[in-house]
Amino acid sequence: AVWCCVRSLNTQATLVIGFELASINNDNLGPLSDDQSKYCLYKTERLAWAIVFGISTATCLSISLTCIASSFYLGDRAQYCALHRGVRLAVVIVRKNIRMIIGVYVFGLSNFFLSAVSTVWLFLGNANWRTLSEEDIDESWCDVTDDVGNVGC
Question: What is the Cα–Cα distance from 69 to 141, expressed in whole angstroms?
Fold first, then answer.
């Protein structure tokens, strides 16, 4: 039963890595890195969220890889110990070290959620339009202006 928990954490961390790698595909990074895009990361109002996105993505990937490696190593050592020294000692070793692996997994998962929230905020959270002043409005190409200064063409 304890070994199933280790394998489960390994599988879940692998899934987190897959979803995190999918979040940095070309469909997301293309508009975020294009300096002509309204979603550009380099704009001043988006820079903080861009830093959060980058750090949480890199942290999630590295921590999840650490979780996979440590759970694999723990399982391998536990099986070796069970074959050569006894099952009780192997269970004690797994129970002693599983808390650390769970902590690493939870930290990686929280960074995954932070990365997802920052991605959504980069695309939807900030203003994706430009409010024009009266001097900026050229009546030759725009015909409707509301009271706030937003332009409809």
Answer: 60
Residues 6+ apart with CB under 8 A from 131: 148, 149, 150
Say how far apart CA 142 and CA 153 lie, in whole Å.
5
* CA-CA-CA-CA dihedral for 102, 72, 4, 18, to nearest 10: 70
pLDDT in tens, 114-151: 999 988 888 887 665 555 566 655 554 555 555 555 55
Classify each residue of 17-48 as buried b or exposed e, where b means 16 or more C-beta atoms within 10 Å of its C-beta: beebeebbeeebeebbeeeeeebebeeeebee
Q: How many CA atoms lie within 13 A of 145 on its CB side?
A: 16
Pairing mode, if any, of strands 144-145 and 151-152? Answer: antiparallel
